């Protein structure tokens, strides 16, 4: 089985730690390792290094190879331009298709936390065996919801169609992204909705056929890249073709168009969290709802439900803060209410065209 971990996003929701020159997946957000390193670690030793691939932007190639020194350099697939996840997946598939078109593969992300790693590995093993027998299917791996999240995608599933080694595989019904509060509460209570992690197991050949069917124009460009894989012409063709591909998410390009008969859903409590935003990181690390989560030199008095991360040698002191995010880096101090974190992305976008562009 092959594993592909995507590590190409800029990560504006974790600003000011995550910057254009060093995005969140390369930073030490949890403990003393980057989330990219943690994502690879949880696959070992079940996966060999040569079976792990990283999809990232060309500007981050050196960061990937320096943090993952045991990874074969040829397994790092660089995107010469940012064209969203649709083309990024297509590029990885074009590379894998030349080598192992029918081998099961799993798509993963570099900024997630999984606490139940043994369960996660068992799910991958079971999914691999199913896909070996059903190479034109796709398995969506999802997290049973802990609360009515409005910031995550949801996946709706139907009745259990079959069971393998104790895991129920359900029929696939529908996707929903960032629902309103009423719908989020409805999904949470329904018993047939789960958080959509963006994790799926399938084969390169199946995804390739979906690009050919649902994105014919993009497919023509990807086919040219595919034909150049393994040749001296690859980098030249990639640089010419990839920046011209349509900028579109993989969900919009492919997943939303999949025939439900080709998809099944596996929903379990993996202890999963998306740590790509400060409030999500706090939820992942806290052991009780009102607990403070801190890092570095921090002194809190009469504070609760705060996340305070200090990346400097200065002491950060706070009094009577309730539900706040405080991030202190060498050149920026961010202070905001926990509920205001979604506004960070817009703030960073505005900085990009200002006198403070160096802070992006």
Head-to-tail CA distance between termini: 38 Å
What oligomerization state is this entry in?
single chain
Q: Kindly report the spatial arrangement of strands forming the biggest sheet.
A: 6-9-7-8-10
The CATH architecture category of the largest domain equals: Alpha-Beta Complex
CATH fold title of the largest domain: Spore Coat Polysaccharide Biosynthesis Protein SpsA, Chain A
Q: Can you say what the CATH homologous superfamily of the largest domain is? A: Spore Coat Polysaccharide Biosynthesis Protein SpsA, Chain A
Properties at a glance:
360 residues; alpha/beta; Spore Coat Polysaccharide Biosynthesis Protein SpsA, Chain A; 2 domains; 4-stranded mixed beta sheet; 30% helix; 27% strand; NTP_transferase_dom
Account of the 3D structure:
By secondary structure, the chain is α/β, with parallel strands linked by helices. It folds into 2 domains: 2-277, Spore Coat Polysaccharide Biosynthesis Protein SpsA, Chain A (Alpha-Beta Complex), CATH 3.90.550; 279-341, no CATH class. It has 11 helices and 17 strands. It has helices at 35-41, 61-67, 85-99, 117-133, 181-190, 204-214, 216-228, 234-241, 250-253, 278-285, 343-351; strands at residues 2-6, 52-57, 76-79, 105-109, 112-114, 138-143, 153-164, 167-177, 193-202, 263-268, 272-274, 293-295, 298-301, 307-310, 316-319, 324-328, 333-337. The strands form 4 sheets. Strands 6-9-7-8-10 form a 5-stranded mixed barrel. Helix 3 packs across helix 6, helix 6 packs across helix 7 and helix 7 packs antiparallel against helix 8 (234-241). One of its GO terms (biological process) is GDP-mannose biosynthetic process. One of its GO terms (molecular function) is mannose-1-phosphate guanylyltransferase (GTP) activity.
């Amino acid at each position: 089985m092959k594993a592909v971990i995507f590590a190409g996003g800029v990560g504006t929701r974790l600003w000011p730690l995550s910057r254009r020159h060093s995005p969140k997946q390369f930073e030490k957000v949890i403990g003393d390792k980057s989330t990219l390193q943690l994502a690879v670690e949880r696959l070992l030793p079940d996966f060999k290094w040569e079976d792990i691939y990283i999809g990232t932007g060309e500007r981050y190639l050196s960061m990937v190879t320096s943090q993952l020194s045991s990874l074969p350099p040829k397994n790092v697939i660089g995107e010469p331009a940012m064209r969203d996840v649709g083309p990024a997946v297509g590029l990885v598939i074009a590379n894998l298709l030349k080598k192992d078109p029918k081998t099961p593969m799993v798509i993963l992300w570099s900024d997630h936390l999984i606490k139940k790693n043994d369960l996660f590995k068992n799910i991958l093993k079971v999914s691999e065996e199913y896909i070996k027998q059903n190479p034109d299917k796709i398995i969506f791996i999802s997290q049973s919801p802990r609360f009515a999240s409005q910031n995550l995608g949801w996946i709706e599933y139907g009745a259990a169609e079959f069971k393998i080694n104790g895991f129920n595989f359900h029929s696939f019904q529908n996707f929903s992204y960032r629902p309103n509060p009423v719908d989020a509460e409805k999904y949470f209570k329904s018993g047939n909705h789960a958080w959509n992690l963006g994790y799926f197991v399938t084969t390169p050949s199946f995804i390739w056929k979906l690009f050919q069917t649902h994105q014919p124009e993009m497919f023509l460009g990807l086919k040219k890249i595919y034909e150049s894989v393994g040749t001296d012409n690859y980098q030249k063709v990639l640089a010419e073709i990839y920046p011209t591909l349509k900028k579109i998410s993989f969900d919009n390009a492919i997943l939303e168009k999949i025939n439900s008969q080709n998809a099944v859903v596996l929903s379990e409590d993996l202890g999963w969290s998306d740590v790509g935003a400060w409030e999500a990181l706090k939820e992942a690390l806290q052991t009780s709802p009102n607990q403070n989560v801190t890092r570095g030199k921090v002194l809190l008095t009469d504070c609760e439900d705060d996340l305070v991360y200090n990346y400097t040698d200065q002491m950060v002191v706070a009094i009577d803060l309730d539900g706040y995010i405080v991030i202190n880096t060498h050149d920026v101090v961010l202070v905001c209410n926990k509920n205001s974190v979604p506004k960070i992305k817009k703030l960073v976008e505005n900085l990009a065209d200002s006198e403070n562009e160096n802070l992006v």
